Amino acid sequence: MSEVIDNPARGRFELSEDEGTATADYRINGDTLYIEYVESPPALRGKGTAGRLMRGVMDTARERTLKVIPICGYAAAWIRRHDEYADLAG
After folding, report:
1. Who is most buried in 13, 17, 23, 55, counting CB within 10 A?
2. From CA 29, how far away is CA 66, in angstroms rounded?
3. Residue 56 to residue 42: CA distance in whole angstroms
4. Where along the sequence do coiled-coil regions lie (predicted)?
5. How far apart are CA 9 and CA 55, in angstroms?
6. Which CATH superfamily includes the segment(s) 5-84?
7. 70-80 pLDDT tens trace
8. pLDDT in the model for residue 2
9. Quick one: pLDDT band at residue 65, thresholds 50, 70, 90?
10. Edge-first strand listing for the sheet containing 12-17
11. What is the C-alpha to C-alpha distance for residues 12 and 5, in angstroms, rounded to an integer?
12. In terms of DSSP H, where are the helices of 1-90?
């Protein structure tokens, strides 16, 4: 399975799979990670790629002891559905 990669030069997390790369644009201010936009190419939609990407983003935030504020509607809805990350809500 692919790994979520932090690409700070582009300000995004990336998850590459055979059909393309899903991304989560972000910015960090202090100890807060703002998820600005999550995008999955059409070929990856409906395959759970964006959810795997979000899990990797949230696990990274936990490792770095960052609070998370989702700006993106998809990210906000995903976090609401995953109580195991409620402690990261900023």
Report:
1. 13
2. 10
3. 20
4. none
5. 21
6. Gcn5-related N-acetyltransferase (GNAT) (3.40.630.30)
7. 999 999 999 99
8. 77
9. very high
10. 5-7, 12-17, 20-29, 32-39, 67-70
11. 9
12. 49-63, 73-81
SS3 76: helix
Which sign, positive or negative, has the C-alpha torsion 75, 81, 86, 90? positive
Cβ(38)–Cβ(62) below 8 Å: no
**CA–CA dist 77, 74 (Å, integer):** 5
Determine the Cα–Cα distance for residues 67 and 62; give it in Å rounded to an integer.
8
48-75 mean pLDDT: 97
Task: Specify whether the CB–CB gap between 88 and 61 falls below 8 A.
Answer: yes
Residue written as token pair 């990797």: 56
Q: What is the pLDDT of residues 31-52, one digit of tens each?
A: 999 999 999 999 999 999 999 9
Model's pTM, two decimal places? 0.94
